[in-house]
Give the backbone structure.
Amino acid sequence: MLKIRANQIAKAALKVRKDYFPQSKNSPISPYNLADAMGLDIRFVKIGSFEGMYLAEDGLLLISAERPEGRKAHTCAHELGHHILKHGTKIDEMLESGSDKAIEKEADFFASMLLMPSSVVRRAINRMGLDSNSLTAPSTYALSKYLGVSYRAIISHMYFNLNSIDRSHYD
């Protein structure tokens, strides 16, 4: 993703946080509450390889009921990304290696910046008495639970997007 586009997406995520949750500038937010505040309907469905789906014409987000809580939250935020970024109707299947489609990467980046902007991550680390340079697996897991995301989501976001941990902490 081009740096200019990444900056646009990050700004869009921060604007949505500010517009809908102005009191939560440096706090975790619920993507479910956000979808509700935006007038979108959410339904949890049981379909094997299904992650989520955004139905633009119906204002509907379908989220897999089969995934862990942190992953469901990230999927919801990802589908909100499709909505905010005006990608239209999208179906997301479970792919272990992720997708190489540009719009899927954009929606993932939006979700990460919506749920884990740098200010929220920094404040959470400080509140928990942690140091980003000496995070352990258990402290990173606790951080992920505080933010309402998966362990993999926080560790990947801190390494790839925020550049706040080094490779050894990511591995």
In short: The chain has a mean pLDDT of 92. DSSP finds eight helices and four strands in the chain. The CA atoms of residues 81 and 107 lie 5 Å apart. The two ends are 23 Å apart (CA to CA).
